[in-house]
Write a structure and sequence with these properties.
The protein is an alpha+beta fold. It has 4 helices and 6 strands; from the N terminus they run βαββαββααβ. It has one domain: Alpha-Beta Plaits. The chain binds flavin mononucleotide.
């Protein structure tokens, strides 16, 4: 098993429908390939963690690399893992527009449970830092 974490830049600022399109195809394909992870977007910057069997992660990643909706991909992490960190997350998604306290609580619970259950792996720490520094709310 392996994980990949990368950042990239959207070629233009994306609206909710465009983000939703990416989310829908990601959920479908990743589920089919048993790839889990999280995709976050904040003001033109993506960060994504993908994890699963090597060939599945590499397949999904090679598709993402060809996508013209983003550019300047930088791989932060590409390494073997012994267990998944994002098993419960499927593909998460986030926008900076947080409305309800309920969502904030949901976000806090999920980050806390990541820490409690999965230790402090590099992928989790990288994603968590992005969430906190961009003040994101993660919804599922
Ligand atoms: C930032 C970003 C992240 C993406 N993440 C995924 C992903 O995790 N899984 C996936 O299948 N497609 C992802 N995509 C979409 C792929 O690049 C590609 O459009 C998609 O796999 C095509 O699948 P389809 O033919 O089923 O629509 C992402 C695209 C972008 C711009």
């Amino acid at each position: 098993m392996k994980n990949i974490v990368y950042v990239s830049t959207a070629v233009k600022l994306l609206d909710d429908d465009q983000l939703l399109n990416i989310l829908v195809s990601s959920r479908k394909n990743n589920t089919e390939h048993n790839v889990t992870g999280v995709l976050l977007y904040s003001e033109g910057t993506f960060i994504q963690a993908l994890e699963g069997d090597d060939h599945d992660v590499d397949f999904i990643f090679s598709n993402i690399e060809k996508d013209l909706r983003h550019k300047n991909m930088i791989t932060l992490i590409n390494e073997q893992i012994s267990h998944k960190s994002f098993t419960d997350w499927s593909m998460g998604f986030s926008t900076p527009r947080a409305e309800k306290l309920k969502d904030v609580l949901g976000y806090l619970q999920s980050v806390d449970s990541l820490n409690a259950n999965k230790g402090t792996g590099a992928a989790v720490m990288t994603i968590k830092t992005f969430i906190e520094s961009n003040n994101l709310i993660v919804t599922y």
